[in-house]
Structures are given as structure tokens and as C-alpha cells.
Q: What sequence folds into this?
């Protein structure tokens, strides 16, 4: 059973371009979380999705950022018109269900660099 | 709102010495708490979790943590540090079906 797969591992974009980050959850997992990590800041929650539904997007910036988790295929985090401040590591986690006794499994992250 | 605070962004210990990483939580309800470890350029790996079954929780790689309600703490310990323990450690709390992380503590092991 493969773990959570994120691609690409490294992504370089020029200011103003779009960045698309992909996350394939573990087999059988229908819950996906996205986090952003900046140096010395820890991981900041961005969005929580289930198949075809956004459950909690309280951590998403209001503009330029969007996320989806379609019925088929990976979850996508999309950043439009990237700026230097978007440079960070973005981590995806998946779990088989929600609830207090659920473990979330993390991918290895996508490191976005905006030049 | 539930949150965790990690005391000390960097901790250095000698190989073979006790490891103590501090975490305090804030929660209006019984918390569910976690410790994760992140090795360089890797994702996060769960070390252990507290779900109210027992106050002393044993995890992987010889780590354990004790939940102390009176001190609102969930400190991570390991009796004897190994060089391979050098990593960043995150305390976290479950809040509204999502995990909220502390800012992390980078553990350095001195030879």
C-alpha cells in the first residue's frame, strides 16, 4: 500500500504563473488535508476536503488559492498568479475517516519556489 | 480555540542524554494530542498520540509523552538520545476535525 504521494517534489514558478500541486491519498482514504510550512512557522492548516466536497477552508487565503478533490483522481491545490511570498513547502495528508481517533498520514511535500 | 505551544525552537542534547521537548496545550474540552517528527526534506511521521486512554503514551523509536491535565502539558521524552534523533518535532492537537500544529522544535544531537 503506497503512502500519500505528492508531485512534483520541487516546483519552480515565475511570479504571475500558476502552480498546481497534486496529492494522491493512500488507498481507501477519502479525507485530504493541505498544510503550508514556512521556516520557523510550523505547519499551517489550509483546507480539508472529502471527495467532491470542501469541508473546511478556513486556512485558505481568500484570493488566488483553490483546492479540489474530485471523485476520480488526485486532490489539487492551485495557486494562481504566484508571488514570492507563496514560496513554501506544501504538505498533503490523508485519513480514512474523520474523528478523534484517526491518524493522518503525510506525503513528502511539494517545495514551491517562486522566482 | 484549541492550540499548542512548544517551548524552545531549538534544543541541543548530548548523545546518550535525556531528551525533553516541551509542549503545552490550550483546550476547553479534553484534548487529543499528537507528536510528529520531520526529518530533513521529508514529510511528517506520527510518533505517538494521546486519546485519553492512558496518561503515559509510548511511541516509536523509544519516545514517550505524559499527559498532565494539571499542568496542561504533553512533554515528549526519550531516556537516551541517538544521533538519528536529530530532526524537527511537532506537537499538535485535534481541533474541529483538523490537526493544529505547534511551531516545532528542532532537536540537535551533540556527539
A:
Amino acid at each position: 500500500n503506497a503512502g500519500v504521494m505528492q508531485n512534483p517534489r520541487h516546483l519552480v514558478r515565475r511570479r504571475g504563473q500558476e502552480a498546481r500541486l497534486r496529492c494522491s491519498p493512500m488507498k481507501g482514504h477519502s479525507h485530504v488535508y493541505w498544510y503550508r510550512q514556512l521556516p520557523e512557522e510550523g505547519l499551517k492548516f489550509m483546507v480539508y476536503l472529502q471527495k467532491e466536497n470542501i469541508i473546511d477552508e478556513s486556512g485558505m487565503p481568500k484570493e488566488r488559492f483553490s483546492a479540489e478533490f474530485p471523485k476520480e483522481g488526485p486532490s489539487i491545490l492551485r495557486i494562481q498568479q504566484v508571488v514570492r511570498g507563496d514560496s513554501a513547502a506544501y504538505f498533503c495528508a490523508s485519513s480514512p475517516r474523520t474523528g478523534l481517533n484517526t491518524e493522518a498520514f503525510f506525503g513528502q511535500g511539494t517545495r514551491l519556489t517562486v522566482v | 480555540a484549541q492550540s499548542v505551544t512548544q517551548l524552545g525552537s531549538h534544543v541541543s542534547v548530548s548523545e546518550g542524554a535525556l531528551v525533553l521537548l516541551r509542549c503545552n496545550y490550550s483546550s476547553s474540552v479534553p484534548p487529543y494530542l499528537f507528536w510528529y517528527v520531520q526529518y530533513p526534506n521529508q514529510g511528517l511521521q506520527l510518533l505517538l498520540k494521546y486519546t485519553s486512554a492512558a496518561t503515559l503514551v509510548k511511541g516509536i523509536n523509544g519516545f514517550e509523552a505524559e499527559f498532565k491535565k494539571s499542568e496542561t502539558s504533553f512533554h515528549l521524552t526519550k531516556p537516551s538520545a541517538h544521533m538519528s534523533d536529530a530532526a524537527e518535532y511537532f506537537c499538535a492537537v485535534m481541533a474541529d476535525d483538523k490537526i493544529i500544529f505547534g511551531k516545532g522544535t528542532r532537536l540537535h544531537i551533540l556527539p
